[in-house]
Specification:
Helices cover 37% and strands 18% of the residues. With 192 residues, the chain is α+β, with helices and mostly antiparallel strands. Strands 3-4-5-6-7-8 form a six-stranded antiparallel beta sheet, covered by helices on one side. The longest helix is centred in the N-terminal third of the chain and has 19 residues, at 5-23. The radius of gyration is 24 Å and the shape is globular. 23% of the residues are buried.
């Protein structure tokens, strides 16, 4: 919420008024004007996780960043990657599942991690060979040594070795992707 200096001063006065009323034994609700109550509610942030009325733990729905990319805490292993995929919006979730399944099938024992709100895939401790990220109209797959792949993935990068594959809705060549994954996994990985 953006407020002008004057608007902040008005809000601060309402908060002081409510605090003073509470000290005098009045309820804050009785002392607050309707607009102060709206402003206070608008400023309150939702809790990340909590407990439901039945005592069950409620998980927070991940925030979607620019382009619909899920905001997922960094972590190693399959669980954070699956959380990222499940939080992907719409048709991109299916693409994420297919990308993950192809990589797992093509590279047995693949190492998974989420870093910078992006799933990374690697082999052992030698680094990562690919990652993917959501954008408004496509899912972008990064091959860290993409210039060494044949044929070279179509998306160019400002960085010398990196190549991209932009997967649009309904246009995913799984056979070619699997070929690139197999080739990329055989190359030295990058350590972010």
């Amino acid at each position: 919420m953006v407020r002008t200096k004057n608007g902040l001063n008005k809000m601060a006065a309402k908060v002081r008024k409510n605090a003073g009323a509470a000290k005098n034994g009045e309820s804050r609700k009785a002392a607050a004007s309707p607009s102060a109550a709206r402003d206070t509610k608008a400023m309150m942030k939702p809790r990340a996780a909590g407990t439901g009325s039945n005592g069950a733990t409620l998980a927070a729905k991940p925030k979607l960043l620019s382009g619909g990319n899920p905001q997922i805490p960094k972590g190693e292993g399959d669980a954070p990657v699956q959380a990222f995929i499940e939080a992907m919006p719409g048709w991109k979730r299916d693409i994420g599942r297919r990308i993950d399944a192809i990589i797992v099938r093509t590279v047995p024992g693949v190492r998974k991690a989420v870093k910078w709100n992006t799933p990374f895939y690697g082999v052992g401790d030698v680094g990562f060979f690919t990652a993917f990220h959501c954008f408004n109209k496509y899912v972008k797959v990064t091959f860290f040594h993409g210039t060494s792949l044949r044929p070279v993935p179509p998306g160019e990068s400002k960085q010398k070795n990196i190549r991209y594959l932009d997967i649009h809705e309904g246009a995913f060549d799984e056979a070619q992707f699997a070929s690139w994954v197999k080739q990329a996994a055989a190359l030295p990985g990058v350590v972010p």
